[in-house]
Amino acid sequence: MFVVLLKPSGQPGRAGDLLAGHKAWLEKGLADGVFALWGSLKPEGGGAIMAHGLDRAALEKRVAADPFVSGGVVRAEIVEIAPARAESRLEFLLD
Question: Count of domains in the chain?
């Protein structure tokens, strides 16, 4: 399981132009069963994504395809978590 932190980078002015592509990229991750949730980082801005069901190399490739990442709006930091126990609704993350 991974948490992807998308932190503001040097090109924030490009966000508006790339927003539709970024949203489509997020929705594709959800439809593919890779992204379990996402949301905004508070208060500094940026976002976070919980991803599962793929290895780090595949996730890095997917993240590189995010228009916000490739367009320099955000930089991505991937944190890997080895879950040991979960509440019953989250047991699907214990792969």
Answer: 1
Residue 8 lies in a domain: yes
* Secondary structure letter of residue 61 according to DSSP: H
* Cβ proximity of 14 and 6 under 8 Å: no
pLDDT at 93 over 90: no
CATH number at 15 reads: 3.30.70.1060
Q: Could you tell me if 84 and 25 are in contact, meaning their C-beta atoms sit under 8 angstroms apart?
A: no
pLDDT digits (tens, 9 = 90+) for 35-75: 999 999 999 899 999 999 999 999 999 999 999 999 999 99
Nearest to 50 by CA among 69, 63, 64, 68: 63
What is d(CA 63, CA 79) in angstroms, rounded to the nearest whole number?
A: 13
